[in-house]
Each structure stands twice: as C-alpha cells, then as structure tokens.
Amino acid sequence: MKWMRALAIGVITALVGGVMAIVFGDLGTRAQGVSDFEGGRGMLIAFGLLPAGLLCGFIAGIAFGRRAGQSAAPFFRDASLAAATTTAIIAAVGGLAIATADHAPTISGREIELEFEVRIPASSTAPVDLKAGGFSANLSATKSDNHFADLKFDAVRAEDGARVLPGVAGLYSRTSDRQLLVGNWPSQVFALKLPPVPSQADFTWTEWLAPFEIADGSPVPAGQAFAVRYRVRFAN
C-alpha cells in the first residue's frame, strides 16, 4: 500500500517537474542564447530538460511518498512537499542559468548600440549599387551573438573620392572580443577595441581603422581595403 501511495505521489510530482522544466527551460535557454535554428532550442527542452524534470519530480515523489501514512492528510502533505521540493530544485537550476547568462551592456540603465561608417575606396571592386549587390555587415561577439548590422544604403555619401556607408549594430554581449565583418563574402574583418561594458568615453568616433584580414584567412588584396570608424551611442 505504501508503494502504491509513493508511486501515485511520484506520478503527480513528475507532472509538476515536467511543467517546471518547460517553464524554466524556456527562460533559461532564452537567457543563454540557445539558437532556435532548425528547432534546436525546442528540441533541447523537449528531449533533454523535460525528461530531466519528469525524472526529478518522480524521484522526489517516491522519496516523500514512502513516508506517507494511511490517511488522506499525510498523502496530500507529502505530495505537496514533494512538489515544492521539485519546483525549488528546477527553479534553482533555471535561476542559475539565467543569472550566469550574458546580458546586454547598458550605460545608466539605457541600452546602447554601435554606430559605424564604412569607407569604400574608389579602387574597390564593391558593386556600384551596394544594396542590390548584397553588400552586408555583421557584428560578431560570441558564438550565439552574431547579428547582421543595419546598413543605411540611402545615406551613402561621397568623401574624398570614396563612398562612406553608415550603419548601426546592436550590442548584446559583454565581451571584449568583438569583430565587424564588412562586405560580400569573404568579408573584411575589423577588430573593435571596446571594453565588455562600454562607457560614455566610447561615444567619441575612433580613427579610421584598416581590416586585419579577410574572413577566409587570406590577406586583404591591394586596393580593396575598406576602412571603418565607430562609436557607441544610446540605442534609438
């Protein structure tokens, strides 16, 4: 009889554990930046975190259920204790995932972004119509933080015989290893010298910087090198 009560409590708390695993699994994987590409994040929750939550709840239910007596009061008491324990364990794991996640840097509580300009020399073979030519830029910070920038093709200007293309990229990670990749593949790579959490001292434009390599590891061909300058600003 005691094992039947324990099994019943185990089933109940397994369901609780499954629900909590889905809730905190969703929050934790979002905070950690787990990719949704091809359903990867959903599969992690469904085939990894959900079974773990079910198992955690079932074990807690059996452990507490073995203490249950013959009356209804101890049954519901121990079922509640098992459910609370399961919830606390899963919440602690989920809270740890959220607390240790990389968060977007801010200044005075306000979101910031990277404003930059790309100078394309007259000797470059970049297409005349940059937008139609598939010209792009992306800011690479971490494995999960690699986003395309918003290039302002309608704001291209001529300057000393070169074309200057403005752009904006979001800052979503606290890292000092940021790179801006510019142009059609293989892109030109620029190392950005920004602290993990920029300050208002970084609101000033940098000098024009040269790329240090092509994305495929080859050197930049003569006459093809772009130049980039950048600054941090409050996000619009």
Brief descriptors of the model:
about 240 residues; alpha+beta; Immunoglobulin-like; 2 domains; 6-stranded antiparallel sheet; 5-stranded antiparallel sheet; 11 strands; elongated
Concise summary:
With 236 residues, the protein is of the alpha+beta class.
Order of helices and strands: HHHEEEEEEEEEEE
Question: What is the number of E strands?
Answer: 11
What shape does the CA trace take?
A: elongated
Output mean pLDDT. Answer: 90
What is the percent of helical residues?
Answer: 25-40%
Q: Distance between termini?
A: 65 Å
How would you characterize the largest beta sheet? 6 strands, antiparallel
Tally of separate helices: 3
Low-confidence stretches: none
Q: Which class of the largest domain in CATH terms?
A: Mainly Beta
Supply the number of structural domains. Answer: 2
Structural class: alpha+beta
Beta-strand portion reads 15-25%
Radius of gyration: 27 Å
In the CATH hierarchy, what is the architecture of the largest domain at level 2? Answer: Sandwich
CATH fold-type name of the largest domain: Immunoglobulin-like
Characterization of the model:
This protein has three helices and eleven strands; from the N terminus they run H-H-H-E-E-E-E-E-E-E-E-E-E-E. With 236 residues, it is α+β, with helices and mostly antiparallel strands. It has helices at 2-31, 40-65, 72-99; strands at residues 106-107, 110-120, 137-140, 146-148, 150-151, 157-159, 162-170, 178-182, 188-192, 213-214, 227-234. The protein is elongated and about 90 Å long. Helix 1 packs antiparallel against helix 2 and helix 2 runs antiparallel to helix 3. The relative contact order is 0.14. The protein folds into two domains: 2-99, no CATH class; 106-234, Immunoglobulin-like. The mean pLDDT is 90. The strands form two sheets. Strands 1, 2, 5, 6, 7 and 11 form a six-stranded antiparallel beta sheet that branches. Strands 4-3-8-9-10 form a five-stranded antiparallel beta sheet, with no helix packed on it.
